[in-house]
Each structure stands twice: as structure tokens, then as C-alpha cells.
Amino acid sequence: MIVAPSLLSADFSRIEDEAKRCGKAGADWLHIDVMDGRFVPNKTDFSPAVVACIRKASKLFLDVHLMVEKPEKLVDGYAEAGADIISFHLEAAENPAALVRKIHALGKKAGVSIKPATPVGKIPRQLLRECDLFVVMAVEPGKGGQAFMPEMLPKIRLLRTLRPSAYVEVDGGINAETAKKCVAAGASILVAGTYLFRSADMAAAIEALRA
Predict the structure, then answer these.
(1) What pTM, to 2 d.p., does this model score?
(2) Active-site annotation, residues
(3) Which residues contact 143 (CB under 8 A, 6 or more apart)?
(4) What is the pLDDT of residues 83-118, one digit of tens each?
(5) CATH code for 2-210?
(6) In this structure, is the dihedral angle defined by the CA atoms of residues 47, 196, 112 and 92, taken in order, positive or negative?
């Protein structure tokens, strides 16, 4: 099980130290939400320059989640900044299949994310074959600290059935209780923000997600 702390919940004023803290606590990946204030209500300051600083501070796998309109315009910058995997929203991309090919051509793994209202059936067959990662949003994207939506569990099961070898990531509302349900449904990556960064002992909280 891969645990990816969401830096959306970290102290941005000391983001490099926060990235290092996640590594020391036993995290596997770092999850970075890039928001433009248009595709989702909020906006984040995770520019390619900031991601490059995080890359220098941490050797953890960098999972960059583009929650933006026109993600096609941003992938080059984040690839150059050191992202290991770049995911984008199916609902935002003009040509999702072409974007996956572009990300792969940049030498990065590619992922597609779907909002709670978007069924798995909307993902084109070509994407189901070619994506390395599928992100199931278990909350409405754009804001941390929301409650997990259990009605997303069937999506996890279906994606695991359709692509047994792909990563299935769950983002939103993850804690020790919801993690068990996601793993049982077939999730391979858990993105947790509030639960980890507000814990008194991040290492223990990460282990609780794996339990």
C-alpha cells in the first residue's frame, strides 16, 4: 500500500521541511494538488518552481495532480520540475488520449482523475489501456478536510477489475477507518492530508493507514 501525504494540508511557508518530514515519517509518495481557481474553487501556489524546490528537498515519488482547466498547457513545466507522475481531470482535458501520450513522451507516468459525479464508464477505452494511474476523488475536488463519500467505493472496485495492473488512487476523506474500506475495494494508493498533518505522530498515522 502506497501512502501519499497531500501537501495541500502542509504548512506552505515551510514546504521543503514538510516534505522532508513526510519522508522521515515513512511516506511513499508526495501528492501535490495544482489548482487554478477555475476548474476548482480554490487556488494553490504549487507552481513548477515550488515543485522543483520540493524535488530538491525530497527523494520521494512526486505525484502531481492537475486540478486545472487546459492541463495540456502545464504538463511540460511540471515534468521539467521533477514530477514522477502527472494526473489530470478527464473533465478538463480537450483530448485526454493525446495528453496521456504527451506525458509519456516526457518520460513521466500518466494518470486520469474523475470527479465524484463522473462515472468510470466515461473513461475512454484507450485511456483505460494506457493510463498508469486512475484517481478516484472521494470528495468534491478543491478543498481539504471533507468527509469521505462511501458511494465512491464501487468505482474503485470497477477500476481494479478493468485494469488490475494499474495504480488506483483514492483522494479525499482518507483516515484509518476509510482507508480499510478503500484497500478492501482495491485501492493501491491512499492520499491523505488533514488526517496526517493534524496527527500528533505522523509516522503512527501512516502506519494506521497501512494496518
Answers:
(1) 0.96
(2) 33, 171
(3) 40, 41, 42
(4) 999 999 999 999 999 999 999 999 999 999 999 999
(5) 3.20.20.70
(6) negative
